[in-house]
């Protein structure tokens, strides 16, 4: 019998070893409290990213006649509805451009549950936009016809096949594409994987980000602004990696080369025609033109659930993805407490039923809790205006971009570590041609000047020196701030997998790593019983 005992002993030891190995492989969890700040410095060169040229086959027009191109799907506010968008006809660029008549081509989507049974039909609207520069020597642009059609009465969690175009014109219907609607709202109902990307642009590094993202087979893509970087070009098609360095003082207006938007739409079509993508504006979407018009490409090219979520604005809106209520906020729209966005946000938050959508996730462009020198505390006025409202409603996660690097925060509220604060994740590392952010504000000699910089699109100045904590009296910390959990200057994308009403797995994937391997991973764990009473503002948090 002793040998048997020894076998059992070895057996238990092996089991124990296996259990330890599994435990070690488990990602860390926010339940363990704030983690010690980590900075990872990649060894490879962070040389500049190079745009795909207009000769790249992936950006060229393959559609002929009135055939659709740049086909894209976006979610509506509820999973029973979705948007399909596409473009027909050719854009014009140059001297005298004459806008196409949007009534030339119909906007029809035929759809159904099988590729050979597209028995339902929806119709929508068409528009064109122009980007005009009334300045000597500058070229104008006018778009192809942009179509947006809303499908309604869909089943949640269901794959739909569709064709879009104009069935009355020969050759004007697209190939058959397919996408899946989000699962129904509910505490045990979640999309498998949500990809979160920012600041993509259209470089060879962008294609690496998108390839890595596609390999993770996302059910939804959230793009937190800075999309095509068409404003890195002059209207004659000459581009630069630093607009203000190259042309900043020589151009009468900040020019754009709008065909870059079409290139972006074409390059992205394999993703956007089959995976719903939700976009919110970044500063690169501002794109000023004649008559102080802004955001023309952004508001024309994408469909937003603005009416469906009651915002009636392309700059902020909300939608449900299973048991997640997403709120997309406008960092370049009025966010003051007396403004329309804030009032809409109050109403939207008040409507959220956390027993149906336990998760509250927000997305916008410019980060509140960044520690890089670039854009350090740039949108403090937005944070001061909106943070308390989101916190009191138990915001779980906030995704941002803008800073061209990756950073994840510990749970934080008002610059103070707080077990009920949100986790802030910034993924402005999509691969665009501007410089990657590599310098931290806490490095000696790199704390930016706290004085306001003139910027018509970021109202006011709110970034004063800290009044408490280790950086009291100063504008920057002298080491990686405690609120910063992990930061790294590599290109990549993130994947959010919500498992149930308390656990979500966040993974950040670097472009230089093999598909599937994660650079940063963490279980973001909600504690509703500890934190959610705060969302009932009529009941004091620590009252009787
Ligand atoms: C960008 O892509 C190039 C290859 O196209 C690669 O050599 C470089 O390392 C990439 N940069 C980063 C920061 O990933
Ligand atoms: C572009 O459009 C503006 C506004 O219509 C006009 O003033 C300008 O002359 C146009 N540019 C060219 C090159 O035609
Ligand atoms: C575009 O304009 C810039 C600035 O005037 C000039 O340097 C460049 O050569 C032009 N490029 C082309 C392709 O005409
Ligand atoms: C555009 O903005 C400038 C500067 O803010 C202002 O001087 C000008 O009057 C505006 N033009 C129009 C057409 O609104
Ligand atoms: C945030 O902290 C600042 C400085 O300590 C304080 O003045 C302010 O009242 C705090 N805001 C909230 C909403 O707690
Ligand atoms: C704010 O902090 C900076 C250093 O970070 C310092 O130079 C400046 O004097 C401080 N301003 C005030 C008003 O304390
Ligand atoms: C939620 O998911 C996590 C991770 O998969 C798991 O450990 C936990 O037991 C789940 N909780 C419930 C209530 O299902
Ligand atoms: C909020 O608090 C008030 C007062 O304590 C209570 O009457 C109400 O039922 C609470 N509502 C929720 C949703 O917990
Ligand atoms: Fe940006
Ligand atoms: Fe950017």
From TrEMBL:
InterPro entries per record: Calcineurin-like_PHP, Metallo-depent_PP-like, MPP_PAP, PAPs-like, PAPs_C, PAPs_N, Purple_acid_Pase-like_N
Chain positions covered by the region annotation Disordered: 27-57
Sequence ranges of Basic and acidic residues compositional bias: 43-57
Domain Purple acid phosphatase N-terminal, residue spans: 68-181
Sorted UniProt keywords: Glycoprotein, Hydrolase, Signal
Region forming the signal peptide: 1-25
Residue ranges of every copy of the Calcineurin-like phosphoesterase domain listed in the record: 193-406
Stretches assigned to the Purple acid phosphatase C-terminal domain: 477-513
SUPFAM superfamilies reported for this sequence: Metallo-dependent phosphatases, Purple acid phosphatase, N-terminal domain
Enzyme class: hydrolase
GO molecular function, one term: acid phosphatase activity
Catalytic reactions of this protein: a phosphate monoester + H2O = an alcohol + phosphate
One family name in Pfam for this protein: Metallophos_C
Catalytic activity, EC: 3.1.3.2
Family from the record: Belongs to the metallophosphoesterase superfamily. Purple acid phosphatase family.
Name of this protein: Purple acid phosphatase
């Amino acid at each position: 019998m002793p040998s048997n005992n020894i076998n059992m002993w070895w057996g238990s030891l092996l089991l124990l070893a296996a259990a330890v190995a599994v435990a070690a492989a488990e990602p860390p969890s926010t339940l363990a409290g704030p983690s010690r700040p980590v900075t990872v410095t990649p060894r490879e060169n962070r040389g500049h990213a190079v745009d795909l040229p207009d000769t790249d086959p992936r950006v060229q027009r393959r559609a002929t006649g009135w055939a659709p191109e740049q086909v894209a799907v976006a979610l509506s506010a509820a999973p029973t509805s979705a948007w399909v968008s596409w473009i027909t006809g050719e854009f014009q660029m140059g001297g005298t451009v004459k806008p196409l008549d949007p009534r030339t081509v119909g906007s029809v989507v035929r759809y159904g549950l099988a590729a050979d049974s597209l028995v339902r039909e929806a119709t929508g609207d068409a528009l064109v936009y122009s980007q005009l520069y009334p300045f000597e020597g500058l070229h104008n642009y006018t778009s192809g016809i942009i179509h947006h059609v809303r499908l309604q009465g869909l089943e949640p969690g269901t794959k739909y096949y569709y064709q879009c175009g104009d069935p009355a014109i020969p050759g004007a219907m697209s190939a058959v594409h397919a996408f899946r609607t989000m699962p129904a709202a509910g505490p045990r109902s979640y999309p498998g994987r949500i990809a979160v990307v920012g600041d993509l642009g259209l470089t060879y590094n962008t294609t690496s980000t998108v390839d890595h993202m596609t390999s993770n087979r996302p059910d939804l893509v959230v793009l937190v602004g800075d999309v095509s970087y068409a404003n890195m070009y002059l209207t004659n098609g000459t581009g630069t990696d630093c607009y203000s360095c190259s042309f900043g003082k020589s151009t009468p207006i900040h020019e754009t080369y709008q065909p870059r938007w079409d290139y972006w739409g074409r390059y992205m079509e394999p993703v956007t025609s089959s995976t719903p993508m939700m976009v919110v504006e970044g500063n690169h979407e501002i794109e000023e033109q004649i008559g102080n018009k802004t955001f023309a490409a952004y508001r024309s090219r994408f469909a937003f659930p603005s009416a469906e979520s009651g915002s009636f604005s392309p700059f902020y809106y909300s939608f449900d993805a299973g048991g997640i209520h997403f709120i997309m906020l406008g960092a370049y729209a009025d966010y003051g407490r007396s403004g329309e966005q804030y009032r809409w946000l109050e109403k939207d938050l008040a409507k959220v039923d956390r027993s149906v959508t336990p998760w509250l996730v927000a997305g916008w462009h410019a980060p509140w809790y960044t520690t890089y020198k670039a854009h350090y505390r740039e949108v403090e006025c937005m944070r001061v205006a909106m943070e308390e409202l989101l916190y009191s409603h138990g915001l779980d996660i906030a995704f941002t971009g803008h800073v061209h690097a990756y950073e994840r925060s510990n749970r934080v509220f008002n610059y103070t570590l707080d077990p009920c604060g949100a986790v802030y994740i910034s993924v402005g590392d999509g691969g665009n041609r501007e410089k990657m952010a590599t310098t931290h504000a806490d490095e000696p000699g790199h704390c930016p000047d706290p004085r306001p910089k003139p910027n018509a699109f970021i109202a006011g100045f709110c970034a004063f020196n800290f009044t408490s904590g280790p950086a009291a009296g100063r504008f920057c910390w002298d080491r990686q701030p405690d609120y910063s959990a992990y930061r790294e200057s590599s290109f990549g994308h993130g994947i959010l997998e919500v498992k149930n009403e308390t656990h979500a797995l966040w993974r950040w994937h670097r472009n230089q790593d093999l598909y599937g391997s994660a650079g940063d991973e963490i279980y973001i764990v909600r504690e509703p019983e500890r934190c959610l009473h705060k969302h009932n503002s009529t009941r004091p948090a620590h009252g009787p």
